[in-house]
Every structure is written in structure tokens, then in C-alpha cells.
Write a structure and sequence with these properties.
- 32% of the residues lie in helices and 24% in strands.
- It has a single domain, classed as Rossmann fold, CATH 3.40.50.
- It has 181 residues and is α/β, with parallel strands linked by helices.
- The chain has an 8-stranded mixed beta sheet, with helices on both faces. It has a two-stranded antiparallel sheet with strand order 1-9.
- Strand 3 and strand 4 form a beta hairpin.
């Protein structure tokens, strides 16, 4: 560990990196793909700073919402109650309209591609971390776009979209992904 790094952030960095490397060979098992993506989504939350007023209290739940894909919803269900930055995870599947703004993290599956523009419009300028496996998601205004390259899950980060949503992303996270300015 380098001087000046907190042990917690260092450990979180290692955990995120390990989850990104855990993808293994090209997606041959949908359950494995869902588990890896769920692990990445979980670890992303450790590298985001939401505005303090976003949580009602220091131990208020972090709401993780999903739109689409049942297999990923099942993998994310295993995260229910686990903590991210002292906040227990509360899951919400397929919220609609203004309900999307209660999400801290919004995972949009590629099966919801036809609704992408509308979904992003509902959370624009709200402190919601948007994550998806839709092709070129970050280029389309999402914050973190997941993709597979060299048999690993990697991601692109739209830093402008994160800032517009009032989110601060850790420099550790920015070093691990491809950053769009």
C-alpha cells in the first residue's frame, strides 16, 4: 500500500479489481455473467460519493434499482442487506417514472435498450449512479458502461454525466476504467 492511501480504500480497490478479473472465459453461463456483473455493481458503490442530503441518516439504506434482466436481478438479490459505505442495500426491481429518482444505483439491462433515453431523462441531474451493459452506454449519457474485452468485464465512465448528477467518483475507480471527459 502506498503512503497516504486509506487501508479501506486500498482493500476496496483490490476487491473491485478482483471482481473485474473474475469474469473468466467469455460468457458461457448466464448465471456466472450475472454474478460477475452483480459483483461489479456492488463494488462500484464503494467508489461513489453521493451528496450528504441524499441519505436520510448515516445508516439509511442505499437503494439499488434494476430495470430489465431477471437473471441479474436474482444475482443482485444476494446483495440485499449487505453494506456499502455503512448503508444497507435495499433492492427495488423495475421502478417507473419518478420512482427512479429514489435509486442510488440504477442498473439498466440491455433488454431495456428501447427505454434507455426515457430512463436516463428521469434521473438526469439526480444523484443516481447509472450502470448498464448496453453498448456505448456511457457515450449515450449513462455513467458506467460495462463491456467485455479480453474475457474480462471492463467499464467506461462518463465523468461529465457523473458530475451532472452530483456524484463524485473516486480516483481509484477512474484509474480502473476508461474515462470519457
Amino acid at each position: 500500500m502506498r503512503p497516504g492511501r486509506s487501508p479501506r480504500l486500498f482493500l476496496a480497490s483490490i476487491m473491485l479489481g478482483a471482481s473485474l478479473l473474475a469474469a473468466g472465459p467469455a460468457w458461457t453461463d448466464p448465471a456466472s455473467e450475472a454474478a460477475v456483473k452483480a459483483g461489479v455493481v456492488y463494488n462500484l458503490g464503494k467508489f461513489v460519493e453521493w451528496p450528504p442530503e441524499r441519505f436520510a441518516s448515516a445508516n439509511a439504506p442505499l437503494t439499488l434499482c434494476t430495470v430489465g434482466n431477471q437473471p441479474l436481478q436474482g444475482a443482485l438479490a444476494l446483495l440485499q442487506g449487505r453494506n456499502v459505505q455503512g448503508h444497507p442495500i435495499a433492492l427495488r426491481n423495475n421502478p417507473r417514472g419518478d420512482e427512479l429518482r429514489v435509486c442510488h444505483i440504477l442498473y439498466i439491462d440491455e433488454t431495456a435498450n428501447d427505454r434507455l433515453e426515457s430512463l436516463l431523462a428521469h434521473v438526469a441531474s439526480s444523484p443516481v449512479l447509472t450502470v448498464s451493459d448496453i453498448e456505448a452506454f456511457a457515450d449515450q449519457g449513462g455513467i458506467v458502461g460495462l463491456y467485455q474485452k479480453d474475457e474480462r468485464v471492463q467499464f467506461t465512465i462518463n465523468l461529465r454525466a457523473a458530475r451532472q448528477n452530483g456524484l463524485k467518483l473516486s480516483s481509484h475507480l477512474l484509474r480502473l476504467g476508461k474515462v470519457l471527459q
